[in-house]
Amino acid sequence: MSVRKALWGEKQEAIEESLKAADEDLFRYIRDFAYEEVLARPGLDLKTRELLAITALIALGSPKELATHLEGAFRAGATEREVRETILQSALFLGFPRALAAMRMLEKVLKAHGAPHPREG
Amino acid sequence: MSVRKALWGEKQEAIEESLKAADEDLFRYIRDFAYEEVLARPGLDLKTRELLAITALIALGSPKELATHLEGAFRAGATEREVRETILQSALFLGFPRALAAMRMLEKVLKAHGAPHPREG
Amino acid sequence: MSVRKALWGEKQEAIEESLKAADEDLFRYIRDFAYEEVLARPGLDLKTRELLAITALIALGSPKELATHLEGAFRAGATEREVRETILQSALFLGFPRALAAMRMLEKVLKAHGAPHPREG
Amino acid sequence: MSVRKALWGEKQEAIEESLKAADEDLFRYIRDFAYEEVLARPGLDLKTRELLAITALIALGSPKELATHLEGAFRAGATEREVRETILQSALFLGFPRALAAMRMLEKVLKAHGAPHPREG
Amino acid sequence: MSVRKALWGEKQEAIEESLKAADEDLFRYIRDFAYEEVLARPGLDLKTRELLAITALIALGSPKELATHLEGAFRAGATEREVRETILQSALFLGFPRALAAMRMLEKVLKAHGAPHPREG
Amino acid sequence: MSVRKALWGEKQEAIEESLKAADEDLFRYIRDFAYEEVLARPGLDLKTRELLAITALIALGSPKELATHLEGAFRAGATEREVRETILQSALFLGFPRALAAMRMLEKVLKAHGAPHPREG
C-alpha cells in the first residue's frame, strides 16, 4: 500500500485533486519525493513519522496542514492519547500558544469524525 | 528512575550545575515541570518523546539544546538509524538547511562519543 | 486576586471552559504553571508582562492568542497608546507584516468592545 | 511613479485607507520608509524585489500580506510561471507545508482576478 | 540624549563603527529609523522598550543582537531581576530552549561586566 | 553544466565530501532533488534563485548555509550591490536583527575572498 493510501485513506482522491489544482509540479514533488520516497523509508514506522510531522507543523503554525497530519496519525494507528501527548509536549519546546492552537485543531478534527477515537491505546 | 537520569545519564550532575548557574528558577521549572511532570507522563515512551524533541529543536534552530536531546534519544534507546530518519524527515517540513545543520550536529555528537552507535535497531 | 481574574475579567469562565474542552491537562498546566506560577511572579508588573506577551505572540504570528493578551493588557491597565507602541516597535525586530497583522487584530479587539480605550495613559 | 502606485495599482487608495485605519503611524512608516525609501532603492528591479518579498512572506506564514505581494509581483511584471517557481523553490528552504499554503493563496489571487495571467514570460 | 547614547553608553562609537563596516545604508536605517525615530517615540519608556526587544530577540534566536539589548536594558535602568523575569516568562510563549539560551547569554553579559548588577530594583 | 558546478565552483568537491560525511541519503536528496531537479528548473534564472535562497536563509537565521548561498549568488553573476539590496530589503519583512546578522556574514564572505566583488553591476 502506498504511504498516501495509508495516511489519506478514503480522502486520497480529494486531497490529490486539491494538490493538483494548486500546482501540478508541487503535487508531483509531494507525491513522489515527500510521500513515496522520504516518508516511505524504512527505519521509522508511519505512526512515529506522523507524530513527528505533527510536531513540525505545530512549530510552523500551519493549521490546515496540521489537520491533514492529525488525521494521518490516526490512520497510521496513533491513539488519541498519543496525539494529545505529542501536542502537550510541544508546549515545552514551542510554547503554550502553539500547543493550545494545535489542541483546538485536534478538537475540530475529532468532531468532524463524529465517532470518538479510543482514548487509550 | 527519574526522566533526567534516563536522558542525561552520567552527565546529569554537570547539566544540572550548568542550568542552576544560568538561573535557579528556570532550572527548577525545567526539572520539575518540563522533565519530571510533562516528559514523565505515560502515554508515549521516552524514545518517541526524544525524537519529537529533536524535531522541535530542528524547527527552532537551537544547536546546543539539540545536542542534549540527540544524546537523550540515544540514552532512551533510539538507534542512530532512527535519529537519522527523524532528521531526514524534518527536511520535508522545515527545509533542507535546518535538516543539514541537524545532521552536522549529530556528526559532532557521534564523534564526541568515540564508539559508534549501532546503525541498525 | 488570581492572575487569571486580573487578565481575563468577566471572560474567565468562558475562557476556562474553552481551554478545558481543548484538553484538561493542558488547561491545568496553563492555569497552574503558566498563569498562577510564572505570570504571577513578582519582579515585573502584570501590565509589562502582557506587553511582553503581545511581543512574543506577534513573533509567533498567533492571532487568536494575541487577541486574548491584547484584552489582558487593557485589563492590566495598559493604555491603547502603550499597546500601539508595543506593536509599532515590533516592526523593527519582527518585520512590518507581523506588526501590521497585529494592528489589524487590535482594531478588531477595540471594535468588539464598542467603547474606545483611552488614547493616553 | 511611486512604488506604491506600481505595486498596488488601482487598489492603492483602498490599501492606504485600510492601513490608516489600522494605525496612522504604522501607515506612515510603511509608506515613507518601507515603500518609498527601501523598496524604491535602485540596484534591484521591482519584479525581483516582489519575488523576494514573496519568499519572506512564505517564511513568515503571513497569508494576507502574501496576497498583497503576489498581486504586486504581477503588477511589477512577473509572469505566473516566475511566481510559481518562486513558491516551488521555497519548499526546499522552508518546507513543503509553507510552499503548499502559498500555492493555495496564489490560486485564490488568480481566481479573484478572473482573467488568467500568462503562463509563460 | 540620543536613544543610542542612552542604550549603547560608552560602546556607542564601537557599535557604530561595526554597523558602518557591515553596511553604510543599513547603519543609517538602524540609526535614523530604528533608534532615533521608532525607539525614541514617547508613549513607552526605554526600559520597557528594551524588555520588549529582548523578548523579540529570544523569539528570533539571535544571540549577538540579544547581548546588545541585554546591555541596553541595564543602561536603561532595568534590574537584573526584571531581565530575568522577562526571560523566564518567554519560556511560556516561546519554549524552554529559547529561554535557556537567553539565560546563558545573560550569564555571559553579566560576567563580562565583572561587577554584578543589583538583583533587586 | 550542473547547477552544483555553477553555484559551488571550485568548492564542489569539498562541499560534496562534507555533505556525504553528514549523511549519504541527505546528500543524495540535496544533490538530486534540491539542486539538479528544483533549482535546475527553467523559468527563473540562477541568480534570482540565489537571491531568493538568501532571503529564505535570512528568515531561518542559518548562518552557515547563508554563507554557501552568498557565494553561490556571486558565482551566478549577482553583484555585491544586488546582494546588499536583497539583505537590506529583508529588514522590512524579517526585521533588522536578521538583516544585520546577514550583512555581517556577507562581510566575512567578502573578506575570505580577498579580492572585492564589483560594487556596481
UniProtKB/TrEMBL annotation, chains A, B, C, D, E, F:
It comes from the Bacteria. InterPro entries: 4CMD/NDH-1_regulator (IPR052512), AhpD-like (IPR029032), CMD-like (IPR003779). Gene3D superfamilies: AhpD-like. One of its GO terms (molecular function) is peroxiredoxin activity. It holds the Pfam family CMD. Residues 25-107 form the Carboxymuconolactone decarboxylase-like domain. This is Uncharacterized protein, gamma-carboxymuconolactone decarboxylase subunit like protein.
